# Entry
Amino acid sequence: MLETERPETSSALGRGRARLRIAAWAAGAPLMLLFLVPGGLGVPPSWRLPVSRTAFLVPYALAVAGCLASAVRARESERRFWTLLGVATGLVFANEAYVAWLQARLGGELAWTAPTVVLTLGGATAFVALLISMTRLRVPAGVTRFRYAVDALLAAGLAFVVTLSVLITPLYAPFSDVPRLERLLAAAYPVIAVVVFGGTLTNLVGLKASRWTPWERIAAAGIGVFAVGLAAWPLWYLSAVRVGGPLAPGVEAMWAFGHHLLFVAAVYRLTSAEERWDIRPLPPVRLPVGSWTASAVLGAAFLASALSIHQAHVSASPVLTRLESATIVGSLAVLLVARTALITGENRALHGIAALDAVTGLPNHRSFHEVLATELAVAGRYGEQLSLAILDIDLFGHLNDLLGHPAGDAVLEETGRALTSVAPRRSTVARIGGDEFAVVMPETGPAAATEACESMRAALAGMRGRAVPPVRASFGVASFPAHASGKDELIRFADGAQYWAKLHGRDRVVAYDPEVIAVLDAEERIRLLQEEHVLDTMQSLAAAVDARDPGTRFHSRTVASLAVRLAEDIGLAPETVRLLEAAAILHDVGKIGISDAVLRKPGPLDAEERRHVREHPVLAQRILSGTSLGEIVPWVIAHHERWDGEGYPSGAAGEDIPLEARILAICDAYDAMVSDRPYRSALSAEAALQEIDLNMGTQFDPHLAERFIRLVQEDGWGRAAGA
# Structure
């Protein structure tokens, strides 16, 4: 209830909404009675057909009006939902009205003409389009989406041929005069009905029906009832047009009742006090792409072709049916050829995505490790030298803050080009982190590698005057076999030298020397930060943020405890766990820039307030980037990113989000749910775990979420898990 509303006004509004909903439900009973038994209600014989058909059409008209009214009020994805639902119900209503008009002209006889075919197929197709519009695919590549569409067409073709051969041909055998078009429609409608009903279960109900509002459940029930009635269309046709009987009115009653439910759902939505007019997103769907899928599709296509050819031989109209059979077989062949071509293109695209960095076009972290392992094997076999340089752009966070992320991406891209242009022959330049690059230099010893890195550093500094500013970077160099005997040791020494370069002034090249450089582990790095009073200052700032709200006074410490437990469970290195603990303590430090009025607001936030709150990861980056805590900045800024790419601030998705940030996201969300907040009471641990389970694969990394749930259940954590 809004603070400006008087209690009695709110109560009156609630009673008015309840009456409207009761009236919407109650309208269905007399309409169904007038449609099914007009004679039993005393309607004169001459008026029974008009009254019955009018009572049949009213639910359709009400459904169309309710859907369009909801579409006007809705926004974003929910507007699309109600608009498509209005189009679908409108086409079905237009068809039924046209059929009723024809029936009145023909004295009660039913007729099936071209407009009825167009309208009914259009309405059914609109229902399918509605459900497709609510399907979110995890794979964004256009070639993959196109391949999914081809697979869907192949599956629909198989279902159509099977229905025609196994169901419709025997059912319609006694009626040899049934036109071929009616037989084909009789096979098409059950297939469409299965698609609509299955889509309703997966795309409207899914695994989250218990969380949906009444109008969402009623809408799903309405579409489902209509789909069941649509599946019975072949029986309705025989009953209504050929043999008569009570079956046809029963099927029609299902159609009308389904639309009545859609009208009730619209009334519920229009009278809802809920301000959210944006339908809840569904989990993205990942369709199978394994080799068995290709075999199944190929087998299904051959089965459909065989059934179609068999249908041509047993048909009473061999010429026409053989033409249809040839069309079906030819279409399936074309689809199979198209699918093969799409699979080839998809595999190439997936290989490129897996091997290359999206921003710079350089080999990514995974490819870097593969290249380094291969080159080390060659160097060891032939007794050659190999050097590795790891470099990090100095103060890259400040550059992003000053120029924005598009400019930051441009800097990364230009950095990759500059490094590639001056790197030694046969070298591989890779982007291995946010602002971190690596250069693998075969047949290069320590002195030559150091000289090459000085050339690369000068090339980066010389980018002045281009579309991006000059770049300063800290380089660390290590060599095989002079310094290291294996891949992991070589990376550790090169990274240690790079960190040493940052500690001693940045913008320099440091070659690993065991007499000078101590490769600091995580504990030593954190100790060094504490000696510089940076971490202590940041912890005090984080504590000040938590203290602003009594419900969150232990939040950062609790998230840190949860994160450490989960990180240890999945086997992260001890030094990484220690750094993750620091990141967890500091993950909300950016909220120091958010006003108390927003943080402690008891009601829902408006758009501007939400935008203000969503700035806190960027504010945290600004606070931490000026310190020696650069390693944890990417984890802190990304702890509100989502697995499905719908998070903020950058919209990163999946494994593009740092693993440590994905751990923070789960632990932060869990502690937030089991804590009292100004706008709601705390959830129980069980309810919070259920929410995490429901959001696996959308908000959270599914593997990490599953491990977290198991840990909480095994350890028996409650609200004060880490206190």
Summary: The beta strands are 386-393, 428-431, 436-442, 473-480, 509-511. The first helix runs from residue 7 to 26. Residues 428 and 440 are 5 Å apart (CA to CA).
